[in-house]
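Researcher: Please translate sequence to structure tokens.
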Amino acid sequence: MSRKNYTFTSESVSEGHPDKVCDRISDAVLDAFLAEEPKARVACETFATTNRVVIGGEVGLSDQAKLTEYMGRIDEIARDCIRDIGYEQDKFHWKTVDITNLLHEQSAHIAQGVTGAENRDEGAGDQGIMFGYATDETPDLMPAPIQYAHAILRRLAEVRKSGQEPLLGPDAKSQLSVRYEHGKPVEVTSIVLSTQHLDENLTSRDVRAIVEPYIRETLPDSWLTDATVWHVNPTGTFVIGGPDGDAGLTGRKIIVDTYGGAAPHGGGAFSGKDPTKVDRSAAYAARYLAKNVVAAGLAERCTLQLSYAIGVAQPLSVYADTHGTGKVHETAIEAAVRQAMDLTPTGIRTHLDLNRPIFQRTAAYGHFGRKPEADGGFSWEKTDLIEALKAAV
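Model: Translation complete:
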């Protein structure tokens, strides 16, 4: 039986965190290629440190001339990302940072397994396992600790970029410990917030005075109490931030990107990967299906696992766990999700309309628990399978 009374902690990091700078650049490269060709192949990795960004990996377009042209745009793409995030530090400035582009064409041996032929469906871009999760504890059907950890940093980024809080810097981390009672979140027992600031004379108390009003307006009423423990910039001065303070790498924040540790993770990162890579697309599909299971009232919580083999179209397995909250048996849910959605790589991309430049916006503040957008962004957050799933069980 699942525990009902406990405290659970999740963390988030801002768009200016070194790893998130790298995720952003990798996804911006992906979007640029997808804007040119919906079936572009991209596996882009980024590394950032003091005054340097290195971009590498594999890319592919059907038009070789276009591929050469887009290779020449990588420098501009990276600088635009860094400028939008807000880095204008002496040792990490969008104008002066040294950018090295080591991207090259996709391996023909990988391509042959992914690209469909006349007598064979398009296969998965790699082997692996992917998990999706949903819970009814928040309106967006996400675990509360990670959802609100993201929300705090999004709000601080808004007031920083608007000029409302000009002393805040781009690099930040949040962490929430949330107490559950009878399986539902009821209060924040502790909050950790470390944010870069541009005035070296600011104390931790000064920084708390800046950020606390925004934290309070972001969290649900009554969750912050007199007993809540606050740690704001607990190490003191935090002026040197971003890749100048610590190196960054694409794909190093996979728990932040998903469910904050409240659900399993298959281990594959998302950013910089085109949707033929099931690390990304099948994880989106698993979240989409789990969210619809919960939205349909078939369970209060649902974990869904999918597994794939490189070059093979159909998933090898579909596994559901409703953690003792299901209204129907898990085997019925497993059958229903297969019936409601084509889980081949092509089927996922078609159903969720993933062959478009919608990924740069996912690079910070979570890939899940976001609002579906008019241009197809976050399509995996829709709850349009409710009736189909109800009918299937």
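Researcher: Any highlights?
Model: The first helix runs from residue 18 to 36.
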